[in-house]
């Protein structure tokens, strides 16, 4: 079967969240349900401490999983289950909010001044939205890195590459989360499950993500009304959503090489009711969640 084609391409949008954190939103609420089971991806990358130190003070979550991956800097966290600690460069925090958790994520001053990390939200199916919360720190030291014969390197956070299994397992969305680096001109081919959602988010360099290399074969969201240029290669802060049909993808690096995050998951195909940090299946479930939060019965 030929590699998957690109369905849509998005440019990240600057926004401010939490208590004043400047970030780029790769995709989110307005793209529902294109990325099912994934709800949101935020890229926080700045060398200005004033743009990240305010952080994300105490707030609730229900009905989702939040995944934080740090490339540079440190983030201190705490939650209503009594978990606390600091994650740094290369570390991952994977939290299943389930029936309800209250937590905070507070970036600390980086030695270099630069903070760079990502947070994904993954939806939970209706049958699992009220499961007990679960939290896990995944230190960089236990995340395996696979090097292929052509020099491609892959950090395997979740999923499997070349027989190497990532440390995050038993997740409901059956996800893959890979940090992939290609040297100039290298090709990366990766099998994916037919029907699963496949997303690439570019961090560095430039590459070709569609075998046909036709810049008019997909929708390109976020371009201006006078943007008369289209290209078939992509650079940083670009989100690529693949078609759902096909059992593999093929990426070819440009002259600078390319680095990207690859996210794969099983779609839920369920209704979504989303307000702020809570994602349920109906407006009534949202009402109950917010009532419980305000009357002190949110955490079970």
UniProtKB/TrEMBL annotation:
The keyword Iron applies. InterPro entries: Pirin (IPR012093), Pirin_C_dom (IPR008778), Pirin_N_dom (IPR003829), RmlC-like_jellyroll (IPR014710), RmlC_Cupin_sf (IPR011051). Keywords: Iron, Metal-binding. Transmembrane segments: none annotated. Residues 178-298 form the Pirin C-terminal domain. GO terms for molecular function: metal ion binding. SUPFAM superfamilies: RmlC-like cupins. Its cofactor is Fe cation. Pfam families: Pirin, Pirin_C. Binds 1 Fe cation per subunit. Fe cation binds at residues 59, 61, 103, 105. Residues 21-121 form the Pirin N-terminal domain. PANTHER family: PIRIN, PIRIN-RELATED. Belongs to the pirin family. This is Pirin. The lineage of its organism: Bacteria, Pseudomonadati, Thermodesulfobacteriota, Desulfuromonadia, Geobacterales.
């Amino acid at each position: 079967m030929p590699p998957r084609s690109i369905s849509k391409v998005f440019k990240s949008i600057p926004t401010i969240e939490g208590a004043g954190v400047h970030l780029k939103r790769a995709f989110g609420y307005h793209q529902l349900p294109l990325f099912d089971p994934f709800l949101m991806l935020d890229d926080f990358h700045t060398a200005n401490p004033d743009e990240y130190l305010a952080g994300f003070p105490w707030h609730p979550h229900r009905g989702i999983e939040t995944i934080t991956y740090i490339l540079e800097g440190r983030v201190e966290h705490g939650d209503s289950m009594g978990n606390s600690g600091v994650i740094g460069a290369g570390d991952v925090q994977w939290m299943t909010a389930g029936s309800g958790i209250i937590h905070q994520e507070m970036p600390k001053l980086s030695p270099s001044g630069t903070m760079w990390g990502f947070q994904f939200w993954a939806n939970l199916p209706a049958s699992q939205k009220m499961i007990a919360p679960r939290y896990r720190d995944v230190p960089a030291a236990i995340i395996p890195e696979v090097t292929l014969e052509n020099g491609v390197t892959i950090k395997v956070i979740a999923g499997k590459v070349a027989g190497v299994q990532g440390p995050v397992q038993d997740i409901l969305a059956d996800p893959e989360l890979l940090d992939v680096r290609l040297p100039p001109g290298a090709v990366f081919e990766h099998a994916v499950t037919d029907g699963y959602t496949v997303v690439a988010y570019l961090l560095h360099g430039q590459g070709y993500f569609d075998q046909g290399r036709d810049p008019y074969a997909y929708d390109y969201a976020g371009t201006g009304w006078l943007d008369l240029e289209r290209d078939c290669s992509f650079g940083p802060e670009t989100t690529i959503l693949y078609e759902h049909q096909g059992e593999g993808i093929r990426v070819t690096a440009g002259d600078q090489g390319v680095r990207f995050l690859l996210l794969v998951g099983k779609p839920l195909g369920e209704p979504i009711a989303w307000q702020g940090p809570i994602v349920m299946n109906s407006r009534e479930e949202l009402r109950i969640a917010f009532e419980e939060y305000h009357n002190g019965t949110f955490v079970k």
